[in-house]
Amino acid sequence: MDMGVVELSRLQFALTAMYHFLFVPLTLGLSFLLVIMESIYVMTNRPIWRTITRFWATIFGVNFVLGVATGLTMEFEFGTNWAYYSHYVGDIFGAPLAIEGLMAFFLEATFIGLMFFGWEKLSKRGHLLVTFMVALGSNLSALWILVANGWMQNPVGAAFNPDTMRMEVTSFREVLFNPVAQAKFVHTVSAGYVTASVFVLGVSAILLLRGKWPAVARRSFAVASAFGLASALSVVVLGDESGYALTDNQKMKLAALEAMWETEPAPAGLTAFGIPSLAERRTHAEVKIPYVLGLIATRSLDKPVAGIFELVAVAETRVESGVQAYDALERLKVSPEDKAARGQFELHRRDLGYGLLLKRYVADPRKADPATIRKAAWDTVPNVPVMFWAFRAMAGIGFLQVAVFAAAFVLTALRRCQTRWILWTAVLIMPLPWIAAEAGWMLAELGRQPWAVEGVLPTFLGASSLTVAQLWTTIVGFTLLYGALAIVEVGLIIRTIKRGPYAHHEEPDAVTDDLRLAVAE
Amino acid sequence: MDLPLDYATLRIIWWALMGVLLIGFTLTDGFDLGVAALLPFVARDDRERRMVINTIGATWEGNQVWFILGGGAIFAAWPFVYAVSFSGFYLAMFAVLAALILRPVGFKYRSKRPDRRWRSAWDWALFIGGFVPALVFGVAVGNVLQGVPFRFDSDLRVAYEGSFLGLFTPFTLVCGLLSVAMVVTHGAAWLTIKAEHGAVRDRARVIGSIAALASLALFAVGYLFVAFAGLGFRLDGAVNMAGPSNPLRAVAVAAPGAWLANYQAHRWMVLAPVLGFVGAALAFVGIRRGREWPAFAGSSLSALGIISTVGLSMFPFILPSSLDPRSSLTVWNASSSHLTLFVMLLMTVVFLPLILAYTAFVYKVLWGRSSVAALSSNPDLY
């Protein structure tokens, strides 16, 4: 493999995925906020709630189209840039993507037109149902994407088939009910609800601070503070960690984000602060909170939490076993009926991926010396300092959001939401949910390294056979296109907010047009 | 595990479903692409352009999902095809994606500002979003018919040895233009139904009838290439229709003219190309006379016939390799596992009828001609 191609493919995937996820959380959350606002309209029959719903729906629309547009790239990028990955796991991974289209995306995309254009053509309840379908569709979309992503983190319900040289599904039930996928889904959509709540809270605060459309802003602020409090609590309480005891890589991810080199005996303490050093393989200036890590990771006080050194030692034995699996597979390629080879393969099949890690250093893993095997085992450790700080950024923001929403909610309940400090706080925290979401994805995906699929396929083997020039062409292309669209989108959202809830589309001014033509002639 | 359908049958079903998705995409999103490609030419000023955009404004988004689902379904059911075609046509895929990314934003953002230059820029973005994908899809299909330069190593890793410019040959350009002519005909037929009577609709009819004639001519030229330019592959030796999906275990060879062999073996298949021609002729007459439903039925049947012709001519090949025919992907060696095909079929059987039902409902609610007059009375319109 050309490592330049691999690194650029990773860069492009990271750029396009992280860019895509700027728009997705707002879509996930705002769609349900629209349902709530429109439900109040249907129940109270007061026109102000219709105005509120339509104001936020306009902003939703501007954001939604970019989520859709950048989602197109994601659907095809596995094939364009990760062709071997697509072949190797498409039997399992392709299914949730296709089901997403069938079950979720059609629903969302078909009804969104009616949501915008059907106000006069449907009954009030009918339109509310349409808005709900859009919200349901976008959230179901997230479910299937996270089933797919969860499988990469914890590949259950599948086995390698030497006849087809790929992973094949053994149980769809296990893929669907993968505990990692379930935890990720709840955590991710909750994060989306928080993002949208922070957005609505912040924009309403700006309007209130400027004294503009207070009737709309006050009500929006109230809805956002209630929905935001519930979601901010859910995002913290139903965090992602529940799956961290499940697999070697998930354990490694936990050890890395804690920068925990040695196994932590029960009851394990959580590192609140520290300065991890990769070169020395230790963490300086640690400050620990007792018991907490054991509770989070193992839901108990009597189990130890494995550290990096211990997990690397496990990985080393798995690499050795993986070489046996690789050897058997090479023999099966030549003679598929070789019984001895098949027996050897069955014995070591779960470590085949570990054997493939060696391909980074030697073309034939069977020729690897013990030093190379040790190096491959250390490759299973993700980038510890990045993990450590990304986790702290994400978790810190998560707790801060709970505090802000609690304050906003209490003040709203006391009818004092115009208090200036809460308004200013609401404005200032606006970028935070996006930072937390991106940090969360870095944690999940960098933490999965060196694997594309945990224990099954190393990332560097998954890339397409492309050239560096091709990759630079598309990276520059996407950056220019996405950059321009980001500027346009932010401009349009600001414009929509400034024009407020009572604006309609404008006609181009016919008089100035005629003048301009006259001048041109 | 015992599944109620055997592997070979499921493979044929999924081959057919791939065709259904492709045809679904062409029949629905095809007219969106066509209308977008027609936009700068049939509508001259801002009001006319808004009127045209609003003929598809509320429904194009659902139509586009046929394309996304097509990608997902090929990934799930034909992972080899997904991996080989998208990585092989790398830069062409990027061009399609970039063009398609302009489309959602174009529809939504164009009307957000009254500035003339702003709107004109988005008009051309929409044109690119319609024209480029149609052209590239056609060129891609042409390349598939010719055979694509790829090979597998023993790990089944694919290496592609063609170039971006190499995608464009006289034959593939004919296919690309045929694809453009098809969607433009379809788009024009859609405008005869959805646009108000007047200048825009008349211009669409003129361009549409030319495009229908071009479809007829290009389809005929395509046939000549297939018959006389040495295209075609065939399988050699015993074929295990239920064997493992491993392209290296069957033997295919290049066989000039072999794309016509299926029609000799199965006479009924001639129906597909006949439908392609008859449909285009019907579309021509319908569009020219301003008869909406014959026009739309004609362009639909024509697309159905032309796409089916490609699939049936190549069966059982899906993606033949010109470099190493042994690596060719066929219905028998490129699919997902038996279980995945079965589960995905269940999903499709449950959800596809639902999708068709609520799509029909949405079209019914939004039915009616788009008009310039409505633009000033309805603030929701683009």
Describe the structure.
The complex is a heterodimer of chains A (521) and B (382). By secondary structure, chain A is mostly helical. Chain A has a domain at 3-242 and 384-446 and 467-484. Chain A has 19 helices and 6 strands. In chain A, the strands form 3 sheets. A two-stranded antiparallel sheet of chain A has the order 1-2. In chain A, strands 3-4 form a two-stranded antiparallel sheet. A two-stranded antiparallel ribbon of chain A has the order 5-6. In chain A, helix 7 crosses helix 14 and helix 10 (308-334) packs across helix 13 (370-378). The radius of gyration of chain A is 26 Å and the shape is globular. With 382 residues, chain B is mainly alpha-helical. Chain B has one domain. Chain B contains 13 helices and 6 strands. In chain B, helix 1 (7-42) runs antiparallel to helix 6 (116-146), helix 6 (116-146) packs across helix 7 and helix 10 (271-289) runs antiparallel to helix 11. The longest helix of chain B is centred in the N-terminal third of the chain and has 36 residues, at 7-42. Chain B starts with 6 loop residues before the first helix and ends in a 5-residue tail after the last helix. The model of chain B has no long low-confidence stretch (mean pLDDT 94).
Q: What are its keywords?
A:
heterodimer; A: 521 residues; mainly alpha; two-stranded antiparallel ribbon; two-stranded antiparallel sheet; 6 strands; B: 382 residues; 13 helices
Helix content of chain A: over 70%
The share of residues in helices of chain B is 55-70%
Strand order of the largest sheet of chain A: 1-2
Main pleated-sheet profile of chain A? 2 strands, antiparallel
Strand content of chain B: under 5%
- Compute the CA-based radius of gyration of chain B: 21 Å
- The average pLDDT score of chain A comes to 90
- Record field, number of beta strands of chain A: 6
| Outline type of chain B | globular
Q: Uncertain spans of chain A, ≥5 residues at pLDDT below 50? A: 505-521
* Chain pair with largest interface: A-B, 81 and 79 residues
- Structurally, how many domains make up the residues of chain B? 1
Structural class category of chain B? mainly alpha
Mean pLDDT of chain B: 94
Strand order, sheet with most strands of chain B: 1-2
Using the alpha-carbon principal axes, give the shape of chain A: globular
Strand count, sense and barrel status of the largest sheet of chain B are: 2 strands, antiparallel
